């Protein structure tokens, strides 16, 4: 049954469907992490580019390899974005620890940081892409494929359902949780100190308790946002993909938060089970 363009298709009982939030993202999945129940979904199995959401997989692959986080790496011309010519606040020639490159890739979505991390992986970028796909298969992400570690390529694809698995796995890494939710961080570069800020404004909003976060954008993917956040004392996995407009993804997150706050949690889960039956 096809969903209207901006009408949520929640996995709830019929009586609750008319009362669902008006989320504008073209694809989304909201999961109660404790029970594994999907509370809301639309186009959850649609394969599409995921932009910088890719960097969560990049971070897991880097950490799984256990290369020294204190090792200083050089950002080179090889790390420049030649595909989209995007700007970077990380100058060529910068020397940063692997830890700080990981932090900037997650927090401020620095593409050169992610490129340097993958280039310095044993075997280089081809081996890194293979490790990403091996990890995806191990997590059960059957409809996902990765070709590089920044997310600049539209050939990095996944689904909202697969990304909920990625989110759950990434939440087990303390450094990913920490770096992806830091509001800002200052690093020492050759020409002085430079402050980098989180691409998700919700991480510094006192009304939110966010344990893990990543944004993404390329034209083919639209505006994307994934989070592990706490709502009414429960961990919730939020995957919002392909929204139009710079603020739409955060507005969707706020609409979702308000909607969940107004409903008894047990009633949501029971309605979901009733709809599934």
CATH superfamily: DD-peptidase/beta-lactamase superfamily
| Widest sheet, order of strands | 2-1-11-10-9
Give the domain tally: 1
Report mean pLDDT, rounded to a whole number: 91
Number of strands: 11
String of helices and strands? HEEEHEEHHHEHHEEEEEHH
Gyration radius (Cα, Å) is: 19 Å
Please state the structural category. Answer: alpha+beta
Just give the CATH class. Alpha Beta
Gross geometry: globular
Work out the helix count.
9
- The N- to C-terminal Cα distance equals 17 Å
**Can you name the CATH architecture?**
3-Layer(aba) Sandwich
Helix-residue proportion: 25-40%
Strand content range: 15-25%
CATH names the topology as Beta-lactamase
Poorly predicted segments = 1-16
Q: Could you describe the largest sheet, including whether it forms a barrel?
A: 5 strands, antiparallel
Give an account of the 3D structure.
By secondary structure, the chain is α+β, with helices and mostly antiparallel strands. The chain has a single domain, classed as DD-peptidase/beta-lactamase superfamily (Beta-lactamase), CATH 3.40.710.10. It is about 35% helix and about 25% strand. The strands form four sheets. A five-stranded antiparallel beta sheet has the order 2-1-11-10-9, with helices on both faces. A two-stranded antiparallel sheet has the order 3-6. The chain has a two-stranded antiparallel sheet with strand order 4-5. A hairpin with a 4-residue loop joins strand 1 and strand 2. The longest helix is centred in the middle third of the chain and has 15 residues. It is globular.
């Amino acid at each position: 049954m096809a969903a209207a363009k901006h009408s949520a298709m929640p996995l709830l009982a019929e009586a609750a469907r008319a009362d669902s939030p008006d989320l504008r993202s073209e694809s989304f999945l909201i999961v109660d992490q404790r029970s594994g129940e999907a509370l809301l979904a639309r186009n959850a199995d649609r394969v599409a580019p995921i932009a910088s959401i890719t960097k969560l997989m990049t971070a897991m692959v880097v950490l799984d390899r256990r290369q020294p986080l204190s090792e200083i790496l050089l950002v080179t011309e090889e790390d420049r974005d030649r595909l989209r010519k995007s700007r970077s606040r990380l100058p060529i020639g910068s020397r940063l620890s692997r830890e700080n490159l990981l932090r900037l890739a997650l927090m401020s979505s620095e593409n050169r940081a992610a490129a340097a991390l993958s280039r310095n992986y044993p075997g280089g970028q081809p081996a890194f892409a293979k490790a990403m796909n091996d990890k995806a298969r191990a997590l059960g992400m059957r409809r996902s494929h990765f070709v590089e570690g920044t997310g600049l390529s539209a050939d990095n694809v996944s689904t909202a359902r697969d990304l909920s698995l990625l989110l759950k796995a990434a939440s087990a890494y303390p450094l990913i949780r920490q770096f992806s939710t830091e509001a800002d961080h200052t690093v020492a570069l050759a020409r002085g100190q430079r402050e980098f800020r989180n691409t998700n404004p919700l991480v510094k909003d006192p009304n939110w308790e966010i344990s893990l976060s990543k944004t993404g954008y390329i034209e083919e993917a639209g505006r994307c946002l994934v989070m592990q956040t706490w709502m009414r004392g429960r961990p919730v996995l939020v995957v919002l993909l392909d929204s139009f407009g710079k603020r739409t993804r955060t507005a969707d997150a706020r609409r979702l938060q308000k909607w969940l706050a107004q409903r008894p949690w047990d009633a949501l889960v029971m309605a979901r089970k009733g709809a599934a039956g």
